[in-house]
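Bug #77: duplicate submission created two jobs. Keeping one. Sequence:
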Amino acid sequence: MSVESPLDPSVVRWSVPPEERGGRPVLLLLHGYGSDEHDLFGLVPYLPEAFVIASLRAPLSPPWPMPGASWYPIEGLDGRDPDAVTRAAEAVLAWIHDAVGDAPVGLLGFSQGGAVALQTLRADPDAVQFAVVLAGYAAGGELPGDAVLGERRPPVFWGRGAADDVIPTPLVDATSQWLPAHSDLRGRVYPGLTHSISQDELDDVRAFLDERLADRAGTDAS
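Kept job's structure:
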């Protein structure tokens, strides 16, 4: 991809300095609406150290007085435009091309960031190996990569709270149908959890990421 990414490289938070990144898989963290690159970076101690972790800041500013940044506009709970989600995914893909190159990449996103993580996988299945979607959803519409995903079934973890009332029910229902047809889905609904992340969910995410590292080790050994 030759398009310049609108994501600001100067605000990316990395888990390790440049000299320690070579030859290691990269995990990108995509925050939720009204947050920034500092939010999900707090998860780093709970994630496998084998990954180089980069936490990105979304390119848009939500309407005042909402703080932080956003990946795409939200006009009311039902105003999530799939085309806007795709534009955010294209910005992430351009950043991957510029900053990561050929290193294996996985995505972990919360809420808006989870939707962008899935959309990035859909937009370019060759650029992303797996996705972790926390309290997120699959945007509607069709993308060129959907047919590829239906054949490859890349690993996806989808976690959400049973008491989460932020993501509209129709989007949750549509995601429940879309993901099994386009991924090797690992998912769990957490009783009592609202629009947030629990320790049980972090434990499941860690296990999922450890599996991805084991898959990589098996591929390298073969």
